[in-house]
Amino acid sequence: MVTKAKLPLTLAVDIGGSGIKVMVLDTEGNPITERDRVETPRPAKPDAVIAAIVGLATGKEFDRVSVGFPGVVKAGITQTAVNLDPAWIGFDLGSVLSQRLGKPVRVINDADMQGLGAIAGNGVELVLTLGTGVGGALFLDGKLVPNLEPGHHEFRKGDTYEEQLGNAALETVGKKKWNDRLEKAIAAFEHLFNYDMLYLGGGNAKCINFTLPRNVKIVPNVSGLLGGIALWRE
Ligand code: BGC
Known about the structure:
Elements: E1 10-15, E2 19-25, E3 36-39, H1 46-57, E4 64-69, E5 73-74, E6 77-78, E7 91-92, H2 93-101, E8 105-109, H3 110-116, E9 124-130, E10 134-140, E11 143-145, E12 154-156, E13 159-160, H4 161-165, H5 167-193, E14 197-201, E15 216-218, H6 223-226
Parallel strand pairs: 1-4, 4-8, 9-14, 14-15
Antiparallel strand pairs: 1-2, 2-3, 5-6, 6-7, 9-10, 10-11, 12-13
This protein binds beta-D-glucopyranose.
The site of beta-D-glucopyranose has 18 residues, from helix 3 and strand 10.
């Protein structure tokens, strides 16, 4: 029952390349429902993805909505969506979803939302998400540098980080090679950002099988939803 939960309630939505996940959070960011998930529709065009979110929201009580989107997002408008569909380029997801759900909606990049749910708020913190795509988020003393997009930068052998470490690569080359590549990627990011802490999230972080450096932590995938509360902080 949500009657005792501290209001307002936030519906956190994580749009991924393979699944769309939702969870309701109380005003302090504590989950008050289970995580609910449906497969991402294919083709993943705006109408189909919005219909899936509306389906997941039906029957849940909430006052506002936070969305993590797998692409660059500016002022609620999605600018890229490499793993969804080109129809998202220039789409006003914030306004359209707000109209459909009848609640205020804030949209942010999915890795940025995951980072907001994972960081400690001290020093330089970097987040990398390992899922269908490779996402990233950078923070200084808890302040976000939005839309970092490390996944589409060149990593090695003419491939981007996403081409070497995304889910398709994991399936093609297997866990051993993927882990070797990830170790190299971590070293590259450490040299680039000199972070105090690196957090590894996303659905494939569970495949990591080497000993991580002292300043690297695996965070649960649910941080992607828990970060939703931070979108409403001043
Ligand atoms: C997108 C990023 C996203 C990442 C993880 C990449 O392909 O460009 O915006 O954060 O996938 O979903």
